[in-house]
Amino acid sequence: MNYKSVISEKQKRMARFAKAMGHPVRMYVLELLSKQSCCYSGNLSDDLPIAKSTLSQHLKELKDAGLIQGEIEGPKVKYCINKDNWADARELFMQFLNQENQ
Amino acid sequence: MNYKSVISEKQKRMARFAKAMGHPVRMYVLELLSKQSCCYSGNLSDDLPIAKSTLSQHLKELKDAGLIQGEIEGPKVKYCINKDNWADARELFMQFLNQENQ
DNA sequence: ATACTTGTTCGTAAATTACCGAACAAATGT
DNA sequence: ACATTTGTTCGGTAATTTACGAACAAGTAT
């Protein structure tokens, strides 16, 4: 896992983000959060046909990748996009997707 | 794996692409191919510190996800971006990344 | 015909991912 | 105090991923 040569830091960061995005449930959550500002995992749990524990894991993964952040609010948890890292990811992907014009 | 509800086809397709992009080596290859038109896997093999067979697997995965295509040319294989699917992925990601403005 | 180059496939091992239900922790309501 | 709601963590299992070297197939060169 230590390709110090050839492979750039950007590529590694992008791969990390992409990996987190590499599951339908996680894309669903990300898209939801990128549209509306926040959501509670309870609502997600109602909509998605998976166990609470499974959803929790997916959310953890998005959090570990830095794409979202959770905030405890009473007994619930409110999830939002992690704006800084989201901006970073955006930037990376935009650059990457526009590369043919360079 | 059959979330017929809630999760859209777009989200599933994007997750598929993202998954394929979720490894540093594959991002490296994709970025290379998106800049220059094509490359031979031999050159990749020279640059990347992984076994030929491992590289071959990564290339297969990018191919299975539809992001690249390979063409046999003599004893070598020439790899290019799969333009149609690339355009599709581009479109999907662009839409996704610009969602906050909607 | 034989050797070499090139890249895929096979077999295998180790690590990671995905999923579930049960158990748990923490806050809220009664 | 006790029950309820909410969400995470734990334990376990099955599937997938990542990696390697060896074996193989196919084309090229001698």
Tell me the major beta sheet of chain A: 3 strands, antiparallel
User: Nearest-angstrom radius of gyration of chain A?
Assistant: 15 Å
Write down the secondary-structure element order of chain A.
HHEHHEEH
Strand content of chain A: 5-15%
Secondary-structure map:
2 copies of one chain form a homodimer.
Chain A: H1 9-21, H2 24-35, E1 38-40, H3 41-47, H4 52-64, E2 68-73, E3 76-81, H5 83-97
Antiparallel strand pairs in A: 1-3, 2-3
The structure holds a DNA duplex (30 and 30 nucleotides).
What does this structure look like?
The structure is a homodimer of 102-residue chains. The first copy, chain A, is α+β, with helices and mostly antiparallel strands and 102 residues long. Chain A has a single domain, classed as Winged helix-like DNA-binding domain superfamily/Winged helix DNA-binding domain (Arc Repressor Mutant, subunit A), CATH 1.10.10.10. A 3-stranded antiparallel sheet of chain A has the order 1-3-2. In chain A, helix 2 packs across helix 4. The longest helix of chain A is centred in the C-terminal third of the chain and has 15 residues. The mean pLDDT of chain A is 89. Chains A and B meet through helix 1, helix 2 and helix 5 of A and helix 1, helix 2 and helix 5 of B. The first copy, chain A, binds a DNA duplex (30 and 30 nucleotides) through helix 3 and helix 4.
